[in-house]
Amino acid sequence: QRQDMAALKRAVAAAGYTVVVDARVILIVRKGGVESSLYDDGKVLLKTTDRAKAEAAYADLEPHLQATSPR
Predict the structure, then answer these.
(1) Given its phi and psi angles, is residue 16 left (phi above 0), alpha (psi -120 to 50 degrees) or beta?
(2) How many other C-beta atoms can be found within 10 angstroms of the C-beta atom of residue 22?
(3) Residue 56 and residue 44: Cα distance in Å, rounded?
(4) What is the pLDDT at residue 71?
(5) What are the φ/ψ torsions at residue 37 (nearest 5 degrees)?
(6) Do 34 and 48 contact (CB within 8 A), yes or no?
């Protein structure tokens, strides 16, 4: 099942993320110096070489991913 990308965009924007690209099947967002690609199949790509930053970024994103995933 696919993410509700419109709901995900609203959720991350409300959480302080900057939406860099909205290509409907992928959102690229930025917050805290980490750029994240959020795919409609639920995959996430975190663009940083710092493991601690990546883990913190995912922990911040995860509630929004779960809240907008189909039940």
Answers:
(1) left
(2) 15
(3) 13
(4) 63
(5) -105, 125
(6) yes
CA angle (15, 41, 10) in 5-degree steps = 25
DSSP codes joined into one string, 5-63: HHHHHHHHHHTT-EEEEE-SSEEEEEETTEEEEEETTS-EEEE-S-HHHHHHHHHHHHH
The C-alpha atoms of residue 69 and residue 40 are separated, in whole angstroms, by 9
Q: What is the pLDDT of residues 14-44, one digit of tens each?
A: 999 999 999 999 999 999 999 999 999 999 9
Joined tokens for residue 57: 């970024």
pLDDT tens digits along 37-58:
999 999 999 999 999 999 999 9
Tokens of 54: 């990546």
Using CA atoms, how far apart are residues 51 and 20, in angstroms rounded to an integer? 22
